[in-house]
Amino acid sequence: MYKRNVMILTNPVAAKKNVSINTVTYEWAPPVQNQALARQYMQMLPKEKQPVAGSEGAQYRKKQLAKQLPAHDQDPSKC
Length: 79
Known about the structure:
The chain has four helices and two strands; from the N terminus they run βαβααα. With 79 residues, the chain is an alpha+beta fold.
């Protein structure tokens, strides 16, 4: 079964200035240890396709995932 990788990315510049910390919660992020690399990957995606929690991009990703990995392929009870 597929487990999504949820990641909260923090903008390091805002964190260093001790102002309100700028964070973004993605419904999925690449499974890497380096947060800067994950942030760079997400910034390379078009804004409308970034899987930010609750956004149009997150819905788009779910729709694409349903096409690529249909529920009946993952769970025999849904056949």
